[in-house]
Write a structure and sequence with these properties.
CATH topology: Double Stranded RNA Binding Domain
Strand content: 25-35%
Number of strands: 4
Number of domains: 1
Structural class: alpha+beta
CATH architecture: 2-Layer Sandwich
Shape: elongated
Oligomer: single chain
Largest sheet: 4 strands, mixed
Strand order of the largest sheet: 1-2-3-4
Distance between the termini: 30 Å
Low-confidence stretches: none
Radius of gyration: 15 Å
CATH superfamily: Ribosome hibernation promotion factor-like
Number of helices: 2
């Protein structure tokens, strides 16, 4: 799985990048066929702003996206990973139902 992190209008610290990579790696338990994940970090103002994390996850035959905003990049990335995990669980149940039918 390839993880590409893009920070818009700022340079992300290596600790933030490591945290995001570990969060994204936790998605492997829901689906082994994840091709790559693009993570886009952005914010509006320099101080007291809303930090937004957008994750685009590619699985064979599907592209899943999740966007989360909060006052901290770590909270936002954890929320986006949670949304993606729910989408991956739903996708897995759909695929198993189709195989059984």
């Amino acid at each position: 799985m390839n993880v590409k992190i893009t920070a818009r209008k700022f340079k992300a610290h290596s600790t933030l990048k490591d945290f995001i990579k570990s969060e994204v790696d936790s998605l492997n338990k829901f689906n082994d066929n994840i091709l790559d994940v693009n993570v886009i970090l952005s914010f509006q103002n320099a101080n007291n702003s809303v930090k937004t994390v957008e994750m685009i996850l590619k699985v064979p035959g599907q592209i899943l996206t999740a966007t989360e905003s909060s006052d901290d990049f770590k909270k936002s990335s954890a929320g986006a990973v949670e949304k993606l995990s729910r989408q991956l669980k739903k996708l897995k149940t759909k695929r198993t139902v189709r195989v059984k039918a």
